[in-house]
TrEMBL record:
The keyword Hydrolase does not apply. It comes from the Bacteria. The lineage of its organism: Bacteria, Bacillati, Actinomycetota, Actinomycetes, Pseudonocardiales. This is F420-dependent oxidoreductase-like protein. It comes from Pseudonocardia endophytica. GO terms for molecular function: oxidoreductase activity, acting on paired donors, with incorporation or reduction of molecular oxygen. CDD domains: Tetrahydromethanopterin_reductase.
Length: 342
């Protein structure tokens, strides 16, 4: 099992922390460094900056938000990043959620399956170096609207270094995960539980089979909050804020995929209480509502002596690349990962 590190997005990590962690991951032999995107941090610029301070590690968008860019713009960004990094790009894509798509980007959160499929198809077509044409329900290129002067264009310059830039999808629902198995090179689940791996990966395997592909064609790369401390209770406390943020604040009451997932795992009372308190403005109360059982299900909270066993659970669950988001002594978490997976 390979490992990578997510440097997330502001304000969870400051810029100097992100650079330091990327450099450390590069030195330690990590597989990849992942940069997230939110309404405050743009991932393409940050990945470009990290390409200048790293040498070997893969540089990964985890994720670029689909409503933020036209698909051809994403293809151009991907080609640029792959070129300046010497062919190290992994391109993660995702729709985000309705609050961000509609509230920040002004893009209706509709037809998620179709929008994702068409977007991936256009990105791949643009990266191919051929003239770009596309006739879909969400996008038509060239557009039939406007002045009528549009004509099929192909990307200028040398394009990407890699013949095929790997595309990962950050999706979680059964139908979107199945589609990921059909069309993507990798899957980026969040709040992945090794104990529920068979249930979580079943749609992915169905999609892979439906497309006539092999399991090896799709990299399973869960993004997991992680903390390592001599005291297990302290390690759990270090991941509480990020878990409470996603379980409590991502989405709306009755429409939060992460809360729904925790309910499926059997931790409904804890997750729903966390959500209620978070939405009421009580963040500390939301964090306190998380039981140790829920934390241990969806995060890595370990001591130096228990870390290897916890990582083994992910390997046994079929994880190909474990992407950790470190909390507490962030560099220490990376050192511990490198030591445990050496």
């Amino acid at each position: 099992m390979r490992w990578g590190v997510s440097v997330m997005y502001w304000p969870w990590m400051a810029w100097d922390e992100q650079v330091a962690l990327a450099r450390r991951a590069d030195e330690l032999g990590a597989d990849s460094v992942w940069v997230a995107e939110g309404y405050g941090q743009e991932a393409v610029a940050l990945l470009g900056a990290l390409s200048a301070v790293t040498e070997r590690v893969r540089l990964a968008a985890g994720i670029l938000q689909i409503p933020a860019r036209a698909p051809a713009a994403t293809a151009t960004a991907a080609a640029t990043l792959d070129r300046i990094s010497g062919g190290r790009l992994l391109l993660g894509l995702g729709l985000s959620g309705p609050q961000v798509s509609e509230g920040w980007y002004g893009v209706p959160f509709t037809a998620p399956l179709r929008r994702t499929r068409e977007y991936v198809e256009i990105v791949r077509a643009a990266l191919s170096g051929e003239r770009l044409t596309y006739d879909g329900r969400e996008w038509t290129i060239p557009t039939p609207d406007g002045l009528g002067l549009g004509k099929p264009l192909k990307m200028l310059g040398p394009g990407a270094v890699q013949e095929r830039v790997p595309i990962y999808l950050g999706v979680g629902g059964p139908r979107t995960v199945a589609q990921c198995g059909e069309i993507a090179d990798g899957w980026l689940p969040f709040l992945f539980s090794p104990e529920h791996a068979d249930e979580l990966t079943a749609p992915l395997l169905d999609g892979i089979a439906a497309a006539g592909r092999r399991r090896a064609d799709v990299t399973v790369a869960p993004m997991v909050p992680a903390a390592v401390h001599d005291d297990l209770g302290t390690a759990r406390d270090l991941v509480r804020p990020i878990l409470a943020f996603y379980l409590g604040g991502m989405g709306a009451k009755g429409r939060n995929f992460y809360t729904d997932l925790a309910v499926r795992y059997g931790h409904g009372p804890s997750a729903l209480t966390c959500q209620d308190r978070f939405l009421a403005g009580d963040r500390r109360g939301a964090e306190a509502a998380l039981t140790t059982e829920l934390i241990d299900t969806v995060a890595i909270a370990a001591t130096p002596s228990t870390l290897e066993k916890r990582l083994g659970a992910f390997a046994d669950a079929g994880v190909d690349t474990l992407v950790v988001t470190p909390f507490g002594d962030r560099a220490g978490v990376l050192d511990a990962m490198a030591g445990a997976l050496a």
